[in-house]
Amino acid sequence: MSILAATGHLNLDTFSAEFIKAFWAPTAVTVAWLIQYGMIDFICIGASRTYFKWGFPKGAEGAPEPLCRAMRVHMNQLENSNHMLFTMWLCALCGLPRFAGAFGALWVAVRCMYGFKYRMTKGNLKGILQFTVPSYVIVQTFYF
């Protein structure tokens, strides 16, 4: 199965029903992550900006602390998602799609709790680490 046809154009048969059937778990995790990131993290930034009257394109400098935390969560989630999605799909394509989907779903849940804890906690590193370390361990399991 090749994404690009011999002509260099996107082959529409790539994401056929067979592909989705074989890789339903990592596909569902990818969609769940995009919904979680787009709906929860992104909306939290917008709601915080509106609440604190901190219009766009102002950055985090000088922003109220809760808004700064929401912005940090947003960027941390984005930074971590690239590595996780790559390794999850690599694991799935190497023959373990259900394993990759299960641990990917666990990662999404842990990162969702991390974001909630980070936004609601003021300077409590211990509280944040209880979700950060497991998320890194989950990503490392994809390599085995």
TrEMBL record:
It comes from the Eukaryota. GO terms for cellular component: membrane. Pfam families: MAPEG. It is found in: Membrane. The keyword Isomerase does not apply. Keywords: Membrane, Transmembrane, Transmembrane helix. Its main location: membrane. InterPro entries: MAPEG-like_dom_sf (IPR023352), Membr-assoc_MAPEG (IPR001129). The chain crosses the membrane at residues 86-110. This is Uncharacterized protein. It comes from Perkinsus olseni (Perkinsus atlanticus). The lineage of its organism: Eukaryota, Sar, Alveolata, Perkinsozoa, Perkinsea.
